[in-house]
Amino acid sequence: MNENKIKKQLMQVTISVILVSIIVCVAVFIIFGYVVNAVNESDRSQMKIETQEYKNRIFKQLDEDFQILTTLSKSYEISRIMDDEETLMTSIIETNKANAFISLSYFSVNGTGVVDTRDYGVEYDVKLEDYHPYAQEVIKKALQGENAVSKMFDSEVHHQKVFVYAVPVYQDDEIVGVLSAGDTLEIFEDIVNGDTVMGGQGYIHLLDSEGDFLVRSDNTIVQENVESIFDGPYLNNDMQQTALEALQNQNSIYGTFNYKGEQCRFYIEPLELNGWSLFCANRLWGPTLSMGQIVIFTGGFLFLILILMFFLLYYGYYKFRKNSALLLHVVYVDDVTKAMTTLRFDQRLQEIQKKHEDYCIAAVNVHNFKWINNLFGINGGNKVLQYIKDIIEKNLNEEEFFCRDSADLFYIFLLETDKQILENRLMKIITTISDTTAHAEYSYEISLYSGLSICGTREQALLALRSIQNSHRTSVAFYDSKIHNKFRQISLVESQMQSALQKNEFKLFLQPKTDLTNDRIVGAEALVRWQLSDGTFRYPNEFIPLFEQNGFCHKLDMYMVEQVCKQLRSWIDEGLTPIPISINQSKLLFANANYPDELIKITNKYDIPPSLITLEMLEGIATNDTQQINSQIEALHAKGFKISMDDFGSGYSSLNMLYCLKIDELKLDRGFMREVSDKDDNRRRRIVLKEIITFAKKLNISTVAEGIETQQDKEYVAALHCDYGQGYFYAKPMSAYDFSQKYMYTDHSEVMQDEV
Ligand code: C2E
Ligand code: MG
Ligand code: MG
Fold it and tell me: How far is the CA of 593 from the centre of ligand 3 (A)?
């Protein structure tokens, strides 16, 4: 996990959130706009449809009125009623009664006529010139053969606006007169006052070409008593001009006006009659309230979705940020010490390397940290690690940093390349930490060591550290070509070990073990040699310690046991008397519960009595759990194997160990053989060696002196009553073949010669 990566992801999420929000907003507005538009469109077309419907109804009304007049005219033509003035008059009066006209008249072509006016009675010999000019006009038109309707005019008789219809009356295909009916606009009022306009929310007025109301609906938005749509608060200047042009040119137009803050829409539909027009108006959301509601609901719904999306996106973003921060904390901060992790360290290293070319990386580790854990428990161990972290932190300069890797391994980045200064700084940290007075809680001296790599890598610092991990004398080591080659060799060995085992490159070498009292051969020690394909040898010290560490020793030791069994089998099969062979065994095996069974499997395979095999364990093993080792020894004894303790006296030996462990043989380290110039030292060593041999004898443990190189060595240990000897004085380790040739075909009880 990388902080920059997380930041980048956060940025991407942020941008995504913004983009999605913008897209949703735009989508909402587009949809909203679309819905509003659709509603507007539908509202407008609805207005048009309804206005035209009213127009049709008006024309239907006019047609019906004309129809009455035309029918009357036809009946007059047929009945020749005009010839009888009396009958004509009676007909006029009766017809007028039966219809809703305010007046009905007949004018003959000479310009005189009969007029029956409702509520006022009948008049004779009425002169056409006395009529209102508008009425004269339509009557004259009718005399020309045209059905006509007059414009509105103020009637002096009725004191209201009236208009006149006129149709010609024929006799023998000639116009002999005109039937004319007068009416008020009341006939339209039913129509324009209908409360069904635009779902009951709109209204329709009848206008003349000047915009004056001919019929004004009671059901009106504009409450003021105005005469014309151009009066009062109806239309703004621009709209007035447009509306006037439309009225005069008999065009249909849509428009809007604002009344008391309420947005309203109007539509003008020309009636194509006397320059009249229908003016339909409604509130923007009024007549199509359901559509308006749809718009509001849709908008509201989309808005809610938008809010919800915003919330979800923000919540996701917030969670992501929080989790990222948590993740970064987990990945970047060591839980135990709160120091940074190696991951963070490496990132910081990369960043700072761009700025500083001169630096040093130090790896710091605690000797035997597992002992601290064993002694003080995990919590105690953690406290020690926290203490180490505090001290390192206090000893850093600006821009320097550090981290804790696993367990007790720390890495420090230092802006310093001078070896002496670096060593001093590291020693200061190491000595401060090891100062027991500083952490009186634990009276344990924390011993640290450090590997440094100048301008190098963490891995190099670690190699330098490993190069001194077993040395308590050196606390600070710098990575150099020697260390480099050493570890290169290690990795080479590690890379070859598996295939070497498969290719049988590990060879069995044997070194004889001799009875010191008579120099007769009593056994041999199996020692491994790694023969490379070019014929050269690798010796155990070049790979055994590494195999002990990486666990491969288990496989190798079992392989050597098998080689030994094979050799014993071949001797037996050849009719030779086999001699017991000691085999070096890794300490790991003594902790493995399956170990005795694994051994038995091999001895059984070659049908070798386990008593011919002595298992050599290293003295160091005894520092482990003695009880557990003893039970392993017992198990091995039970199978028939013998146990020998190797290199006794090379490390921190204790006589107590001899008492505790039920071993059969003690191999005295060849260090006892080395003479030193200090005579007193030699004397003291001799006393110790003598006591060990005596003590072992008393415990029924046989003793073998290793490293007998000279006659003098041999006599020295023989005098101390050591049982057996092994060393170059008798023979160097040799291949199993050479060993067989040299010793097995002769009587082993033969006295050994000095082979060196
Ligand atoms: P070790 O078991 O103590 O074996 C004796 C070592 O001393 C052998 O070294 C041998 O060559 C050497 N030696 C014998 N006599 C003399 C002498 O007179 N003077 C001197 N200077 N050296 C003498 P080698 O073969 O190099 O083995 C070294 C160690 O490697 C062995 O010490 C043993 O601990 C380990 N080793 C050898 N083979 C095996 C093996 O198959 N498995 C395991 N686990 N360890 C092995
Ligand atoms: Mg040995
Ligand atoms: Mg040894």
Answer: 25
- State if residue 544 touches ligand 1 by the CB under 6 angstroms criterion: yes
- For the CA of 590, the nearest ligand: 1
Q: Which atom of ligand 1 is nearest the CA belonging to 726?
A: 15
Q: Is 562 in the pocket of ligand 1 (CB under 6 A)?
A: no
pLDDT at 440 over 60: no
- Per-residue confidence (pLDDT) for residue 6, from 0 to 100: 67
Cα–Cα dist 50/70, whole Å: 29
Q: Is the CB of 568 under 6 A from ligand 1?
A: no
Ligand 1 in reach of 539 Cβ (< 6 A): yes
- Write down the mean pLDDT value for the chain: 86
- Of 214, 150, 221, the closest CA to residue 185 belongs to 214
- Residue 457: which residues within 8 A CB-CB, separation 6 or more? 361
Q: What percent of the chain has pLDDT over 90?
A: 43
Going by alpha carbons, the residue nearest to atom 8 of ligand 1 is 527
Give the distance (Å) from ligand 1 centre to CA of residue 527. Answer: 6
Contact indicator for 666, 692 with CB cutoff of 8 Å: yes
- Does any ligand 1 atom lie closer than 6 A to the CB of residue 586? yes
Q: Which of 274-283, 511-520, 744-753 has the lowest mean pLDDT?
A: 744-753
What is the longest distance spanned by two Cα atoms in the chain?
186
Which residues make Cβ contacts (< 8 Å) with residue 741, sequence separation at least 6?
none
Assess contact for 269 and 252: CB atoms under 8 A.
yes
Ligand 1 atom at minimal distance to the Cα of residue 667: 3
pLDDT single digits (tens) 11-40: 777 777 778 777 777 777 777 777 777 777
Mean pLDDT value across residues 496-520: 96
d(CA 505, CA 408): 38
CB 179 within 8 A of CB 72: yes
- Find the 30 Cα to ligand 3 centroid distance in Å: 91
647 touches ligand 1 (CB under 6 Å) = yes
The identity of residue 336, as a single letter, is V
Q: Is the CB of 137 under 6 A from ligand 1?
A: no
CA angle 605, 611, 616 (to 5 degrees): 95
Query: Does the CB atom of residue 540 touch ligand 1 within 6 A?
Result: yes
| Ligand 1 near 512 CB (within 6 A) | no
Mean pLDDT on 402-422: 96
Each residue's pLDDT tens digit, 75-121: 888 888 877 777 888 888 888 888 778 888 899 888 888 888 877 88
Q: Which helix (H) or strand (E) holds 583?
A: strand 581-585
Q: Which residues of 678-695 are buried (b: 16+ CB within 10 A; e: fewer)?
A: eeeeeeebeeebeebbee
Task: Give the 3-state secondary structure percentages of the chain, helix then strand then coil, rounded to 5.
Answer: 50, 20, 25
CA distance 113 to 179: 9
Which of 497, 549, 581, 584 has the most ligand 1 atoms within 8 A of CB, as the residue to mutate?
Answer: 584
Contacts 24+ apart (CB under 8 A), 535-543: 538/493, 542/489, 542/493, 543/493, 543/497
| pLDDT 10s digits, 645-657 | 999 988 766 777 8
Task: Convert the pLDDT of each residue in 55-67 to its tens digit.
Answer: 888 788 778 888 8
Q: In this structure, are residues 490 and 541 in contact, taking their beta carbons and an 8 Å threshold? A: no
> Count of CB atoms within 10 A of residue 273's CB?
15
What are the structural domains, with CATH classification, of the chain?
1-37+203-332 (3.30.450), 80-184 (3.30.450.20), 342-479 (3.30.70.270), 496-743 (3.20.20.450)
Assess whether pLDDT exceeds 50 at residue 287.
no
Whole-number pLDDT of residue 755:
41
Q: Which of 347, 471, 327 is nearest to 401 (CA)?
A: 347
